[in-house]
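Reminder: ligand-aware prediction takes two inputs, not one.
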Amino acid sequence: MEEKVKALQHEVESFLVKSKEDLENFRLKFISKKGSVSALFDDLKSALPEEKRKLGKVVNDLKQLTESKFKTFQESIENLASSDQEIMDLSLPVIPNKTGNLHPLNLTRYRIIEIFERLGFNVSDGPEIEDDWHNFTALNFPENHPAREMQDTFFIEKNPDVLLRTHTSNVQVRLMKNQKPPIRSIMPGRVYRNEAISARAHCFFHQVEGLYIDKNVGFSDLKQTLYHFAKEMFGKETKIRLRPSYFPFTEPSAEIDISCLICHGEGCNVCKYSGWVEIAGSGMVHPNVLRNGGIDPEEFTGFAFGMGIERITMLRYSINDLRLFSENDVRFLRQFKSVV
Ligand code: PHE
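Here is what comes back for the chain with phenylalanine:
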């Protein structure tokens, strides 16, 4: 009988339980009334009286071992079920990460804001549906300026005129009316022009306006600010060039060009073989505009600039078609996942 107990003990010890069914099999096989450990007690009855004590202890020990094993198995199966764990197969391919990412235009907008915020500029906002005064008249546009014509501006109502703003400069006079100098603000937003859609133009796009008004603000401040911006945005090696230009609301006015990022000035088709790419319009705020904003031009001066977010994004990521930004093709948009 001792042999039998030993063999059974070995069986109990080597039994593996991995599931609820295994656990039930263990119970039936050893512990239940008809189980083999229970059967040992019947065998015990017919043992010789002098062996009974010794055998009784051995059988009891095995019974305890079997029961404690059962308990341990039971607990581990319950834990497995409650934590919903499964045995992990580390050789399986990973589940693809489907989190979204920022639109490339927003990546650029946030980068522009970051650069100017470090120079002490705050961020302001203005309406996209605008009146004639803030979009044109207050900005010193003459009555017959071509930008007012139907082919450039989307008019919503005539007399009095309500329109979709053609630039972010509409926020300039609103800011001046609402706060006294010093004003140091950038104004990102969407603008609208009635243009045929192509790889280089769209009927809506995005700009960032900048305005700095204080005592003794000069043209050198404008130049240094935009030079700093160009280096931060496009890299330390970037150069800028100021080209004389005309805007009704700035005097003097200048277009800001940066050295071509693709050919570094050698000449290529991105810069149309000039070595330079235009990124912004700028100038010293016209005294009439300051007056329209309630600011005395004898006391304060300032500069303003406006840059296209699409243009900067295209240069930054070498994108050659503006329409990609609004087509919502995820194959294009997903490429900006890791770019911040
Ligand atoms: N508003 C001008 C444009 O849309 C850009 C600009 C802004 C120029 C501020 C000078 C000063 O082209």
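Residues 167, 169, 209, 247, 250, 281-283, 304-306 surround phenylalanine (CB under 6 Å). Strands lie at 122-123, 129-131, 155-157, 162-164, 183-192, 204-214, 240-247, 250-259, 276-285, 301-308. We will return to this case in the review session.
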